[in-house]
Amino acid sequence: MLVTATELPSAPPAGPIAAFTARFNPRLLAAAGGLCIALSSVFIKVSGASGATSSFWRCLFALPVLAVLARTEARRTGVRTKVVPPLLAGLGLGLDFVLWGEAIPRVGAGIATVLLAVQVVIVPVLAFLFLTERPDRRFLVTAPVLIAGIVLAGGFIGATMTGPDPLLGALAALAAGAGYSVYLLLIRLSSGPSTQVRSLLLATLSAGAVAVALGVPFGRLDFAPGWPALGWLVALSLIGQVAGWLLIAGALPRMPSATGAALMLLQPVGAVVFGIVLLGEQPSVLQLVGCAVVLAAVCFAGRGARR
């Protein structure tokens, strides 16, 4: 039986962000988005805000922008979005935000960002447990190398000079990576080009609720941080969250997975460079070696990932 062009199923319409980013080179978009996110750790550290405070305000400032974009997306695509999975994904995202914000002043902005790469190990494990996706051979080779790099980068061996409590900070960053892994897995199941903004809006709303739930009981949430802290948190929200994430969301589906994985290394590399240049952080030699091992392992794993 012949199938004519009119009988072929049409792809779902792209939302406004996907349509806008389609005009530009995806490599440039991914690079710009990665550097925007790399600045997030700098904004958090210079703001002096706690993890719960930075998480709450970055979500609050992002919500109006995302709401406008989400409304445009809904009108343009006419595709209904799932509600529960993005909200559940936001719980992992909120945990990531809060713990990462606590890790940055303790272990350093650059090292804390590098340690989030633990999601390269956790996401395939979760996919295997809950989606029965068997990890490939590259994962089995990469996992122990990545763990060794994390041990070095986190300051678990040797002296560190990147923060007042590097071991606790490293543990918080690793736990943040676990929360981010949950977010990645759930958002993958619920988002697409036609619903990516609305999914991010719901996840951001849920993440803000996590900041309140974790921050208020322990007195770690400041509802009036004042200036200039509030200004840095505005920059965190608009540059590190809205702009960075939407640029990457519009870029990655248009590139081979190996290229996308390589460009995503700009996030931890940029964070380490920004930490040294802008914040005066001084990672030890062993920490820098650990960072290099982590980045190499992530790059190797990315080259074997399917699109």
UniProtKB/TrEMBL annotation:
A Pfam family annotated for this UniProt entry: EamA
Transmembrane segments: 55-71, 83-101, 107-132, 139-161, 167-187, 199-218, 230-248, 260-279, 285-305
Keyword Repeat attributed: no
Domain of life assignment: Bacteria
Keywords: Membrane, Transmembrane, Transmembrane helix
Domain EamA: 28-153, 168-300
Membrane topology: Multi-pass membrane protein
Localization per record: Membrane
Family: Belongs to the EamA transporter family.
Protein name per UniProt: DMT family transporter
